[in-house]
Amino acid sequence: MFTWRERLEPTGDRFGVEWAVTDRHGGSSLEPWSSFNLAAHVGDREDAVSTNRHRLAHELGLRVADLRLMDQQHGCDVALTDATTGAAGASGMPAPAADALVTGSTEEALVVLVADCVPVLLVDRAEGLAAAVHAGRPGLLAGVVPAALQALRDLGARRLDALVGPSVCPRCYEVPGDLRDQAAALVPAAASVSWSGTPAIDVAAGVVQQLADSDLDVTVRWLPGCTREREDLYSYRRDGTTGRFAGVVRLVSPEQVA
Ligand SMILES: [Zn+2]
């Protein structure tokens, strides 16, 4: 169910964090989505996706209604959850059309769905803020990561821990030369070459550069692994019709310590 998972307990007045990256094992979806597909928009059966989401929520000690997903657009819009803005009806909140989701609430988990794109999780443990970001090639070029950092700064964030999850590696991400040049002009670290030496884009390296270039104090952890080369993760480039795995982040408030 998880390829990576960590829980950092609250200390003093610092928030804890529970964050994870799922894999494709331990779910109810059948081929070609087998088995822990968390996306409802990829042709999988609704009941299988629902079962999988319930399992994920249960693992985090939440209800499925406490999972906050996005209607991901490959853009750079940032949405604050209803619990963060104070809007009513938080638990029935529809998935906003956005590629970054920000919360200041410990009662919900943010979920970003991927199958080659870069999942980025951000947390400010002093201020009690978290974000989940979906950064593919368009999101990298549109600046979704800087947009998420700006939204967090606007809410008072200063020091962030960032987790960059597995994604398609540049060796496996051949693109036309003009696309690589366009990416390199905006984010030089994104220029790369494929296994056969042709132009390629390193989206994750570009995302890491955007995090490093921020004037916020960001500590980056970058998980290894290429989705196209790892059978335990979903890869759209490899399989076409397939599922989505997730990056998930939840704040833990100091008062929640037993
Ligand atoms: Zn690869």
From TrEMBL:
For this protein, what reaction is catalysed? Answer: inosine + phosphate = alpha-D-ribose 1-phosphate + hypoxanthine; adenosine + H2O + H(+) = inosine + NH4(+); S-methyl-5'-thioadenosine + phosphate = 5-(methylsulfanyl)-alpha-D-ribose 1-phosphate + adenine; adenosine + phosphate = alpha-D-ribose 1-phosphate + adenine
Give coiled-coil spans as residue ranges: none
Keywords (A to Z) from UniProt: Copper, Hydrolase, Metal-binding, Transferase, Zinc
The superkingdom of the source organism is Bacteria
One matching Pfam family is Cu-oxidase_4
Which GO MF terms are attached to this record?
A: copper ion binding; hydrolase activity; S-methyl-5-thioadenosine phosphorylase activity
Classification via InterPro entries:
Cu_polyphenol_OxRdtase, Cu_polyphenol_OxRdtase_sf, Cytotoxic_necrot_fac-like_cat
The entry's function note states: Purine nucleoside enzyme that catalyzes the phosphorolysis of adenosine and inosine nucleosides, yielding D-ribose 1-phosphate and the respective free bases, adenine and hypoxanthine. Also catalyzes the phosphorolysis of S-methyl-5'-thioadenosine into adenine and S-methyl-5-thio-alpha-D-ribose 1-phosphate. Also has adenosine deaminase activity.
Report the sequence similarity comment from the record. Answer: Belongs to the purine nucleoside phosphorylase YfiH/LACC1 family.
What is the recorded name of this protein? Purine nucleoside phosphorylase
Q: What is the lineage of its organism?
A: Bacteria, Bacillati, Actinomycetota, Actinomycetes, Micrococcales
